[in-house]
């Protein structure tokens, strides 16, 4: 009798969508297994758990249909989050499941056998873990990743190992770093990019505008859109410089959906950070879509 292929379900829990895929132990993503569903992060716990149940069952069904042996589930989740206890501690999204043990809920709602481990990892840490294993940080000992989206995430690795805080989240946060009259997240998260763009286009109604829209305009040569990303790159460089020096960072990567327009931020970043002697690489992550899924898988393999 032929041995079943080992497989793993990875889930990336975002504020807008849950994304999942079934992967091999080597990190190969079975593309036909990639699936996403609305996360309902601002909704009731029933809505949120319904979305998770749907995405877990989808992965289980895929593995079963392909005759694969499912060996574990990895979940990348935004923070604050107690990794060991599997408890979300967020007040700004997923509020209705604050303090609930997600591991217990997932076992009960999906019927997943309890001998199959469910492991959690902070989403920014997952992106960096994925890049250290399969992406653009593979050749570096000290690396960092910035995730740009609705919020602003940051993760660090030293000697190839993630640096974590007492509850398993990223060792250091940057979203609350003081910047001008506010904090850094006010300037380089979704609301920050839109704020910069709005200041340049005061006569335009920006209601409903997404950063992806600004990216499309930049791709079409719109100068104010290009300048928006350039300014954000400059702000990030100024805010990160001392941290990169202190942590002796060799590789600085950018993930999250906004990083799809990273090419417009790269030159200002390089200019501001040119005197950081340890820094050898500034780039976007190898896979904006899959880095967190690789990282979620990696946390399961690491604990096998």
UniProtKB/TrEMBL annotation:
Signal peptide, first to last residue: none
Superkingdom of this protein's organism: Bacteria
Entries under Gene3D superfamilies matching the protein: 3.30.420.40
InterPro entries in the record: ATPase_NBD (IPR043129), ROK (IPR000600)
UniProt family annotation: Belongs to the ROK (NagC/XylR) family.
Name the record gives this protein: ROK family protein
Organism per entry: Maribellus comscasis
Lineage summary: Bacteria, Pseudomonadati, Bacteroidota, Bacteroidia, Marinilabiliales
């Amino acid at each position: 009798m032929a041995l079943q292929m080992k497989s793993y379900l990875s889930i990336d829990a975002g504020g807008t969508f849950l994304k999942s895929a079934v992967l091999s132990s080597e990190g190969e993503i079975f593309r036909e297994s990639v699936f996403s569903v609305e996360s309902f992060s601002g909704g009731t716990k029933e809505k949120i758990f319904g979305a998770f149940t749907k995405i877990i069952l989808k992965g289980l069904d895929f593995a079963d249909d392909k005759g694969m042996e499912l060996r574990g589930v990895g979940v990348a989740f935004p923070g604050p989050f107690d990794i060991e206890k599997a408890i979300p501690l967020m007040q700004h999204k997923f509020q209705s499941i604050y303090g609930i043990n997600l591991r217990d809920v997932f076992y009960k709602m999906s019927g997943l056998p309890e001998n199959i481990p469910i492991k959690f990892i902070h989403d920014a840490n997952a992106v960096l873990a994925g890049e250290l294993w399969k992406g653009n940080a593979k050749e570096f000992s000290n690396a960092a990743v910035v995730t740009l989206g609705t919020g602003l995430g940051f993760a660090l690795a030293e000697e190839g190992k993630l640096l974590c805080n007492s509850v398993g989240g990223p060792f250091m946060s940057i979203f609350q770093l003081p910047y001008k009259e506010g904090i850094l997240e006010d300037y380089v998260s979704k609301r920050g990019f839109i704020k910069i763009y709005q200041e340049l286009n005061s006569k335009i109604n920006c209601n409903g505008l997404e950063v992806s829209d600004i990216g499309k305009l930049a791709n079409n040569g719109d100068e104010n859109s290009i300048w928006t990303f350039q300014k954000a790159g400059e702000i990030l460089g100024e805010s990160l410089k001392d941290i990169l020096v202190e942590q002796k960072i060799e590789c600085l990567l950018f993930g999250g959906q906004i990083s799809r327009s990273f090419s417009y931020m790269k030159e200002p970043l390089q200019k501001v950070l040119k005197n950081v002697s340890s820094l050898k690489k500034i780039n976007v992550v190898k896979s904006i879509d899959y880095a967190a899924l690789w990282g979620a898988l990696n946390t399961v393999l690491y604990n096998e």
